[in-house]
Design a protein that fits this description.
With 304 residues, the chain is mainly alpha-helical. 52% of the residues lie in helices and 9% in strands.
C-alpha cells in the first residue's frame, strides 16, 4: 500500500511538472496566430510576405524540435554496473564497514570523483555508486549522468543525453523572439504614426513586448551556458568544484580547451551542430580529462 501511495505521489508530481511546459506551448500557439495573422496578414508586398513566412517557419520548426527533444529525452542514468546488488546493499547496512564495502564495489567501475571527505560518492536512494559528474535529482527521483540542473520549463533534468538539445532550445528561443521583435518594430512604428485602432494591432503589440522580454531574459541564460560549454562545466560544477581522492578540488578537471569542450557536447560533425540530433561524444560516465601525474592519487599535473 505504501509503495502504491509513493507511486501515485510520484506520477502526480511528474504531471504537475508539465504545467510550465503547457504554458510555453500555449504561448507559442498564440504567438503563431499573432505573427501569421495579425502581423503577416498586413504585409502588402507578396514577396516580402513569403520570405518572412519561410524564415519564420524554419526558425519555429527548429525551436519546437529542440524543445521537444529536451523535454522527452531521458537525461541519462548510471549503467547497471554502478548499482549495488541486494546482497551488497544488505552487507553494507548490516556492518559498520560501509565505506570499505563501497570501496570494494567501486573497484569494478571507473570513478575519480570523491566526496569532500574522500569517500566514494554513493546514492542511498538509487542504491548506486555515482559515476563522475552524476548527481541525484530529487524531482526526477533518479541519478542523472552529467547532471546540469532540473529545468521546470522542460519538465525534465538537463543531463548528458539532452544537454545539446537544451542549449539549442535556448539558442532558437533567442532567435525566434529576436526575429519577431525585429519584424514588429517597423509595424508598430507605422501604427503609432497613424494612430490605428484596429484590434489586431493589440496582438502585435503584446507579442512584441513578450518577445522582447523573453529575448533579454533567455539570452542571459544562453550566454551563461555558452560559458559553461566552452569550459566544460555544468551548472552544479560552476558553484562547487568536483573533489577527488585526498579531498583535492579541481574546477578545471574536465577542461580540454574551448573548441574541444564544444565538440564534447556537439560532436565532430559541423552538419549536426545546428540540428537537435544526438552527436555528443562519450558515454556519460567516463570522461576525458587533463593530464595526470599519478592515476592512483587522481592529482592533476601541475603546470608552471
Amino acid at each position: 500500500m505504501q509503495e502504491q501511495q509513493k507511486g501515485c505521489s510520484y506520477y502526480c508530481q511528474r504531471c504537475s511538472m508539465f504545467i510550465p511546459v503547457l504554458f510555453v506551448l500555449a504561448l507559442i500557439g498564440w504567438s503563431y496566430y499573432a505573427f501569421m495573422i495579425a502581423y503577416g496578414g498586413r504585409i502588402e508586398d507578396l514577396a516580402t510576405r513569403v520570405l518572412v513566412s519561410i524564415l519564420y517557419h524554419v526558425i519555429l520548426i527548429l525551436f519546437l524540435w529542440s524543445y521537444m527533444m529536451a523535454i522527452f529525452t531521458q537525461p541519462g542514468r548510471p549503467p547497471p554496473q554502478y548499482y549495488l546488488t541486494e546482497g551488497e546493499h544488505m552487507n553494507m547496512r548490516a556492518t559498520d564497514r560501509g565505506r570499505e564495502v563501497l570501496q570494494s564495489v567501486s573497484a569494478r567501475v571507473t570513478v575519480q570523483e570523491r566526496t569532500t571527505t574522500g569517500a566514494t560518492r554513493y546514492c542511498d536512494t538509487c542504491k548506486c555508486i555515482k559515476p563522475d559528474r552524476a548527481h541525484h535529482c530529487s524531482m526526477c527521483m533518479q541519478c542523472v549522468l552529467k547532471m546540469d540542473h532540473h529545468c521546470p520549463w522542460i519538465g525534465n533534468c538537463v543531463g548528458f543525453t539532452n544537454y545539446k538539445y537544451f542549449v539549442l532550445f535556448l539558442a532558437y528561443t533567442c532567435l525566434y523572439t529576436l526575429f519577431i521583435t525585429l519584424c514588429c518594430i517597423p509595424y508598430i512604428t507605422n501604427v503609432w504614426r497613424h494612430r490605428s485602432d484596429d484590434p489586431l494591432n493589440f496582438h502585435v503589440l503584446i507579442m512584441f513586448l513578450i518577445s522582447l522580454v523573453f529575448f533579454l531574459t533567455v539570452f542571459g541564460l544562453f550566454s551563461f551556458h555558452i560559458y559553461l560549454l566552452i569550459h566544460n562545466k555544468t551548472t552544479l560544477e560552476s558553484s562547487r568544484a568536483p573533489c577527488f581522492r585526498g579531498g583535492f578540488a579541481d574546477s578545471k578537471h574536465y577542461d580540454l580547451g574551448g573548441f574541444e569542450n564544444f565538440k564534447q557536447v556537439f560532436g565532430d560533425s559541423p552538419y549536426l551542430w545546428v540540428l537537435p540530433v544526438f552527436s555528443s561524444k562519450g558515454n556519460g560516465y567516463e570522461y576525458d580529462t587533463r593530464a595526470y601525474t599519478n592515476a592512483r592519487t587522481d592529482v592533476p599535473a601541475r603546470t608552471p
